């Protein structure tokens, strides 16, 4: 390879790499992270409005809706690393479906559903730099 051709390839490669890093750094969140979060939320909670229609408007139902709204807001937040446990979400919806058969959400049922919502989305503060623990260290 001629020295001039190698130099041109090196310069063009550096410019392309810098462009890719710039785009990912500045637009990565709105192009990649936010759509993935929206897709996860829609997959997890797409049947929630239909399940809630079967319940009468009670204090427990309103508190459950506000609890789920706060969990969704927490999941969308940039300050936390949140994960959705889809097994717990499925268990939550099965329980909600069972409780909505009589169209009344009691306080005991509400407490059980709140415990399930605590397990559905787990969050921890997002750190800029995170170190893994070394179990072999003395």
What's the gist of this structure?
By secondary structure, this protein is mainly alpha-helical.
Please state the CA-atom Rg, rounded to the nearest Å: 23 Å
Shape: elongated
What number of domains? 2
Strand content: 5-15%
Q: Please describe the biggest sheet, giving its number of strands, its sense, and whether it closes into a barrel.
A: 2 strands, antiparallel
Strand order of the largest sheet: 1-2
The tally of helices reads 5
Helicity, as a percent range: 55-70%
**Total E-strand runs:** 2
Q: Mean pLDDT, nearest integer?
A: 81
Given as residue ranges, the uncertain stretches (5+ residues, pLDDT < 50) are none
Overall SS class: mainly alpha
Write the layout of secondary structure elements.
Blueprint: H1 3-45, H2 48-53, H3 59-76, E1 80-84, H4 86-99, H5 107-120, E2 121-125
Antiparallel strand pairs: 1-2
Written overview of the protein:
The protein is elongated, with a radius of gyration of 23 Å. It folds into two domains: about 1-45; about 45-125, no CATH class. It starts with a helix and ends in a 13-residue tail after the last strand. The protein is built from five helices and two strands, in the order αααβααβ. Helices cover about 70% and strands about 5% of the residues. The longest helix is centred in the N-terminal third of the chain and has 43 residues, at about 5-45. It has a two-stranded antiparallel ribbon. With about 140 residues, it is mainly α. The mean pLDDT is about 80. Helix 3 (about 60-75) packs parallel to helix 5 (about 105-120) and helix 4 packs antiparallel against helix 5 (about 105-120).
């Amino acid at each position: 390879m001629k020295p001039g051709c190698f130099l041109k390839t090196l310069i063009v490669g550096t410019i392309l790499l810098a462009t890719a890093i710039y785009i990912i750094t500045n637009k990565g969140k709105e192009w990649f992270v936010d759509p993935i979060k929206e897709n996860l939320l829609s997959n997890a909670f797409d049947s929630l409005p239909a399940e809630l229609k079967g319940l009468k408007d009670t204090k427990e139902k309103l508190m459950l809706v506000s609890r789920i709204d706060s969990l969704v807001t927490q999941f969308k937040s940039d300050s936390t690393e949140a994960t959705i446990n889809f097994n717990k979400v499925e268990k939550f919806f099965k329980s909600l479906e069972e409780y909505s058969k009589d169209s009344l959400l009691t306080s005991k049922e509400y407490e059980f559903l709140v415990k399930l919502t605590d397990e559905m989305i787990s969050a921890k503060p997002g750190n800029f730099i995170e170190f893994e623990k070394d179990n072999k260290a003395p």
